[in-house]
Amino acid sequence: MIIPVRCFSCGKVVASDYVKFTSKMSEIRSSGREPTAEEVAKTLNDLHVDRYCCRRMILSHADLIDEILPFS
Ligand SMILES: [Zn+2]
Fold it and tell me: What is the rounded distance in angstroms from the CA atom of residue 64 to the CA atom of residue 22?
């Protein structure tokens, strides 16, 4: 659905980092390839998302709001 504003476990704000993360990933995808695991890890490190609880919030999020909105 919508990215939670804060990490469920530690309370760090992750929503603003999610926007930066997705823009960086789509920038890599626009060059015609999928981002490698090293690029994903480096992007998260550059955003100072260090804890694995916060990383899972960003990595495991499925952005479905645009698909669900027509049915509301
Ligand atoms: Zn966290």
Answer: 14
